[in-house]
Amino acid sequence: MKLILMGAPGAGKGTHGAAIRERYHLPVISTGDLIRKAMQAETKAGEQAKAFVSAGKLVPDEMVIAMLEERLQAPDCQKGYILDGFPRTIAQAQALEEMGIVIDRVIDLEVEDEVIVQRLAGRLVCRECGATYHIQYSPPTGANTCDHCNHLLSRREDDEPATILERLRIYHEQTEPLRDYYASRGKLYPVKGQDTVEATSKLVLAAVGS
Ligand code: ADP
Ligand code: ZN
Hints:
Blueprint (H helix, E strand, L loop, with lengths): L1 E6 L5 H12 L3 E3 H10 L3 H11 L6 H11 L9 E4 L5 H9 L6 E6 L2 H9 L1 E4 L5 E3 L18 E2 L6 H15 L1 H7 L4 E5 L4 H12 L2
Helix pairs in contact: 1-9, 2-3, 6-7
The chain binds adenosine-5'-diphosphate (ADP) and zinc ion.
Zinc ion binds next to loops.
């Protein structure tokens, strides 16, 4: 099974992607994570990506497409996967088709902009294991350390308020048109974000088909 998880930054793609992964034993492929890893490893692509990411812009299509294509060659992707944060443009969706990849369903997480801004502005992440927290809604047990691995938590540099607004603007402009693209192919499954993670997860799993 091949799924796409769509939604604005902070809509909960990471959280619900993990729920689908547990249920179906499929890997979650996040282009955001691939890009951050390349930046940390200071590869050529990583170095080129930095300016785009910290400004809240999209990394150029060719670069992300190349990273994704390479990742999908790995053995763990042979039975299917959940794409988190890809495609983000029509050109990226077309690239998937050109690779001969047939997507089964696109789960579109719909969350209002005001909620997104609150969530991202208070988000804390663990750079060691990828766990995320929120200063108010889901604080870590310790002062500023990860519950899972004890690593120090930090803010993502693209979670600065001005950058959040820019990411949202770009989402509406470049990524939202993908809703029509996939709806016209009969693949779009919209899920409205609920007040609790559990309630939303139920709807997400129902949309996936279980
Ligand atoms: P979020 O969903 O919270 O914005 P991600 O971790 O998915 O976070 O992405 C972080 C950043 O990485 C994006 O703001 C963008 O700069 C870059 N990025 C991730 N995926 C893509 C993509 N498919 N195309 C272009 N840029 C991307
Ligand atoms: Zn951790």
